[in-house]
Amino acid sequence: MEVSLRPAAGPCAIAGSLFTMGNATSKTARKLPKRAHPPSGSQRVAAREVKDQAIQDDAQDPDFMSNLSRLGVVNVDHNMKTVRPHEKARKMIERRIESEEQAASMHATRNHVQASTLTYLLDQRKSNISEQELASLTDKYGMDIEKLEGVSAHIASPSISGESVVRRVRNEDGEEEVAAMAIWVKR
User: Region annotation Disordered: residue ranges (predicted)?
Assistant: First the structure.
């Protein structure tokens, strides 16, 4: 092996490779190809239009035919449900868009109320008001009484006991702190 040494700060040639020494990290010199590679499309073989003997022999493969006969007749279930996992995500996005359009419109949508309104309606339902008063109240807020009854079967809002309300003044500015006992009332 032939080695030529140069000063430490300069390049050094060892067995045909060029290294830089000193402050820089030693790296092998990069060699670029001398000619461009032919494009990969030129290497592809075009499909034949006419079946020749090689294609016929390949089609008569005995192992392939024995595997096919071992499989037997394949039954296709045409009633099988097509699985589309993206369908669920698409429907969710459509519902969000619908909801945003309804929220942006100036017209109120029936049975879509804010949480505070729903809490108020549930509290009114728990209080001893008549069915006619509750029906007029739900109609005023744009909600069907049947929907309110359905929601009330699954959601309960806390009520405030009238005797438990305690009011305290916090500072000279007159800020008031209100404490109350929450109770759960079922109708």
Answer: 27-50
Q: Which residue has the tokens 């807020």?
A: 141
Give the three-state DSSP class for 23. coil
With H, G, I as helix, E, B as strand and everything else as coil, classify residue 89: helix
| Length reported for the chain | 187
Q: Cα-flanking dihedrals φ and ψ of residue 70, to 5°?
A: -70, -35
Neighbours of 173 (CB within 10 A): 7
pLDDT at residue 8 greater than cutoff 60: no
Locate 101 and state its tokens.
């359009």
pLDDT at res. 91? 92
Beta bridge partners of 12: 19
Dump pLDDT digits (tens) for 102-133: 777 777 778 888 888 888 888 888 877 888 99
Q: What angle do CA 135, 113, 185 make, to 5 degrees?
A: 60
SS3 for 16?
coil
Tokens of residue 137, six digits: 């109240």
Region 11-31: mean pLDDT is 55
